[in-house]
Structure formats: structure tokens, C-alpha cells
Amino acid sequence: MFSVKRKVSLLGLLVVVSLMLSTCGPTPTPVVVTQVVEVPKEVTKIVAGTPVVETVVETREVVVTATPPPPSAERVLEVWTHEFPPLQDAFTKKWIPEFEAAHPGVKVNMTAIPYAGVVAYDARLLAALSAGEGPDLWDMGDWHYKSFSEAGFLAPLDPTIFGYASDQEMIDAYAPGTLDVFVKDGKVYGLFSEYNTLALFYNLDMFEAAGIEPLPEDKPVSWDTINEISQKLYRTDPSTGAITQMGWQWGFFANYRSPQWYAQAFYALMRQYGQDDLYVDGKPAANTEPAVKAFQMLYDQTFTYKAYDPTFINNWFADFPQGRIAMVLAGTWFVPAMLPNNPNVRFGTAPHPVVDPNDPKTYKNIQWSWGWSVNANKPPEQQRLAMEFMAFMLGKKGETEQAAWWFDNLGYTQPSKAYLESGAMAETVAKNPWIQRWLDAFEDFEIGYIQHMYDEAGSALMRAMDRVVYDGMSAKETADLLQAELERLQ
After folding, report:
1. Whole-structure pTM over 0.90, yes or no?
2. I need a surface site. Which of 61, 304, 350, 478 has the fewest CB within 10 A?
3. Helix (H/G/I), strand (E/B), else coil: 136
4. Residue 54: burial class (beta carbons within 10 Å; 0-12, 13-18, 19+)
5. HSE toward the beta carbon, residue 145, CA cutoff 13 A
6. Are residues 440 and 334 in the same domain?
7. Domain that holds residue 29
8. 102-115 per-residue burial string, b: 16 or more CB within 10 A, e: under 16
């Protein structure tokens, strides 16, 4: 009798708990459960003329409508990137769907923001993080890591999520010095989206049409040679006089006012003339002989040789493959970015031009990195999810498949020793010999990061360069104005 009552009580408790749980979240589709139970029943009998009440046990089939436990809440990871179509395709077609499939209950949202313009990526990212908000994970240029780290925006990465026992082991897994820009006090605050430098692309069809020989692959040509070639490539419409093709494209132009590309152009020239930075020993040095010569080169290209015109260039990735521009300095990502605009474009590659090909001291170039970082203002579990996504798409200790994919599909280099020494890397170069120019650059050139781009000095440099290429101001005059402006900023 006691055992029968307990069975019924437990059954009732199951039903009550099930109903209570159903009020705690979205109601799933009910599931009908049938169960056979023992039920006590009182029966009255007449014994010797006297009514007697007895309890008997019957078996009965009971239908219980049970509600399954509610699904766990969806976890959302917010990712921001700068606008670059191959990068967005990589996320929407590969990394996001694959990560979500491997992590049920996780949703990855990606936001792509224009890199340059009125609401540029860097400005919007800084504003969001300064307000204590922003994405969980984002990529950004090397020039922001020092200031963003000092502002407390960056969460240190957990090396164990990436398969390393310590930060130092993670640092040592990359080519010497390459990870330094992401490291502070022995902690790693970012991992590579890309690591790159500049080399020269030139349009073979345009060269052949003008009777110009291909450029050497094993030795850079001079800037004078580039300007002379550009003169031969300059074309205008006979009836209107409008320019139809030109020889040279710098990375900055009228509708793409990127501080990064202004600085990369100027610093490469200034360094080749013998000065590393706009400041020497902590003091402004914008009207020195090397700086003036760099401005003069920009003037000569624009007005003397008609090699470059910032108002003629329309599109970073379309003008070259479509035959409007014959030469451009770019990173390895240029090929996958330009091919959609003309899959049949024929191109050659050459080392970065220098002031004097016979003087190794002028073999100076620039480098840059983009890295993925995690928001320090997010909860620990959200930071961990962001790092897990990073490890998924970039790879863990010793893995090379992810780095090979990024390089083969976007031209993004991730300089881990495992990948650089892998058969996958060797196979890619064998299939695409043009890549060798960029690998050689790290051996043949003195390459360094740029000190001033997205700060006040970088903005002043942009104005100084604009005075030359738009207004035709002399090199000496704009250099003196820049010097005065930098002195006021101190």
C-alpha cells in the first residue's frame, strides 16, 4: 500500500515539475508519453450482511504530456572587419558557417565597415571601444596596438586556447620579431590577420602595347626608370584630351584617402633617401634633405612625368586589370582582389623600386600587419568564445591548414614557422612564382613599420602631400609648412 502511494506521488511530481519548467522559456512541441502504473482503489463489499471497505490495486495506462527541457540560449559573437570583399567572402562562405556547425548554439555576426571615407573603419572602431562597447572580436592595423593597449581595450590572449603552454611559446612559434607588435609585457594581445610588405605589379599587355620590356625580377629598377616608363604609357583621348591611361598608381587617391597609404608611399621614399622617420631624436625633421627629396619625387611623378594623377584613379582593384593603370605597389592580396574585375589580366611582378639600384643602402621598404584582437570590456566567457573562433580560423600550435587557406585564397600571410617551413607554402609558391618577389623582399630589403599614420603627425603629412599632388606646391615649401605644423604639435 505504501509503495503504491509513493509511485503515484512521484508521477504527480513529475507532471508538476514538467508544467513548471514549461513556463521558464519557449514552449517546445509537446511529446506524448504513455505509462502503465498501479492505482489503489477502495471497493465496498457485503460480507455476512455487513458492508466492508477494502483497498485493491489496479493497473492502468496513463497518458502523460511531457515537455522536453527548453533549448539553451543562443550565444552571439560579434565580429568587425574593414570592408574588403575577399575577406567578407571568406567569413560568410567558410569560417562562419563551419564554426557555427562545429559549435551548436553559437551565432557569429560579421559587420564590414568601409576602410576609408566619412565613417572610416578605424574611427568607428575607436568610438565604439571608447564607449565601452564595440565588437567581441575585430581586426585592425599594427599602428593601433600601442594606443589601444594603453587604453585598456585589448584582452590578453589565453595561449592554452591556441595549444601553447605559455605566451613565450606562442611568440617563439612565429618568425623572429614578427609578433612583437602584438606583445606587451610578455603578453600577446593579437594574432595575425596578415603580415605583408610591398612589391610591384605591372600590366604585361600595357607594357607590350607600348613596346616596353618586362622588368627584372631579381633586382629593383630606379624611380627614374619608373617615371620614364610612365611617360611612354600616358594616353589621352584625341578628341577631348581626357586622360585614358597612366603609368603609376599610388595607394592613396581622391576617392580613397587612407592615412595608411599616404604614409606608406612617403616613408618608403624618405627612407630610401636616408631618413627613417619624420622625427629624429624626438624632434620634427620634416624639411630635411631626405624629406624634401621625397616630396620632390611626388611632384615629379605628378607634374613632370605625368605618371600619377590622384583624380584619375577610380578603383584600387579595377583600374589595373582593366588597363587604365599600368603599375601599382601592393601586397600579395592584390591578385585575389583584382581578378574578379578581369580574370584574364596578364601581369608581371618586380621588386619595390629604389632610388639607386646599385646602392644597397637605398633598398628600403615598409611593412605592416593586421591582427585579430579581443575586447577587454566583454565578459570572460565571451572573450573565450572570441579566442576559440580565432583558433578555429587561424589554427592552433603546429597547424598549417588554416594559414595555407588564407594565403592561397586571400594572399594573407601568417608568418608562423610551421607554415613558412611547410610543404603547403612551397607548393603555393611553385604554382604562383610571382609570390617570390614578396618573400625576397624580406631578405633583400631593410623593412620596418611606419611610426606615424593615424595620429596628428600622420594627418599633417597627408595635408603636406596633398599640397604637392593637388596644388602643385614645391617640395621645399610644403616641407617647411609640415615642419612648422609638427613643431606646433609638440
Report:
1. no
2. 61
3. coil
4. exposed
5. 27
6. yes
7. 2-66
8. ebeebebebebbeb
